[in-house]
Amino acid sequence: NLNKCQTVDLPRINDPRGNLTFVEANRHIPFDIRRVYYLYDVPGGAERGGHAHKALHQLIIAMSGSFDIHLDDGYAKKTIHMNRSYYGLYVCPMIWREIDNFSSGAVCMVLASDYYDELDYYREYNEFIRDAQKVSP
Ligand code: TYD
Q1: Residues 68, 81: contact at Cβ < 8 Å?
Q2: Per the domain annotation, does 45 fall within a domain?
Q3: At 120, which CATH number?
Q4: For residue 27, how many other CB atoms are within 10 A of its CB?
Q5: Does any domain span residue 63?
Q6: pTM, full prediction
Q7: How far, in Å, is the centroid of ligand 1 from the Cα of 91?
Q8: CA 60 to CA 135: how far, in whole Å?
């Protein structure tokens, strides 16, 4: 599962007037986008995430500033430093994620495959691990 979570190099249109990046559903990411949300005004030292999703697919982008994303599929872990507006991190279902080390002014944008649904969340790490380890890595 963790191997499916890769950084996506999004298209970049460089221009002296400013650069442009775009994301197209089912072309750059393997899902339709139903929801967009973003974290901003994150105080220094704060940690976000701390959950997993049962079915949701997401693409996480550092629109501004930087932060670290820690991923865990119940078998292995990896950390990705996000610091470019043209890098997306695809996060598939059944991945525990924590986001920390936010720089000042960081904006974390998330493209999600579905509407917000609390029933899709694992909020307890132990419950996530129990279910994640029922399937092979
Ligand atoms: P939470 O999932 O804890 O934030 P994060 O994991 O990114 O740190 O969500 C914080 C609150 O916001 C929680 O009460 C649920 C609510 N929320 C929505 O209502 N809609 C959404 O799309 C999201 C992502 C969260």
Answers
A1: yes
A2: yes
A3: 2.60.120.10
A4: 9
A5: yes
A6: 0.96
A7: 16
A8: 25
Top mutation candidate among 111, 116, 119 for ligand 1, by most atoms within 8 Å of CB: 116
Amino acid 113: pLDDT: 98
pLDDT tens digits for range 47-74:
999 999 999 999 999 999 999 999 999 9
- pLDDT for 136 equals 73
Which range of residues forms the domain containing residue 94? 2-132
First CA to last CA across the chain, in angstroms?
A: 6
**Do the domain assignments include residue 137?**
no
Amino acid type, 9 = D
Give tens-digit pLDDT for 78-118: 999 999 999 999 999 999 999 999 999 999 999 999 999 99
- Does 83 reside within a domain? yes
How many domains does the chain contain in total? 1
C-alpha of residue 14 to centroid of ligand 1, in Å: 34
Q: Is the CB of 98 under 6 A from ligand 1?
A: no
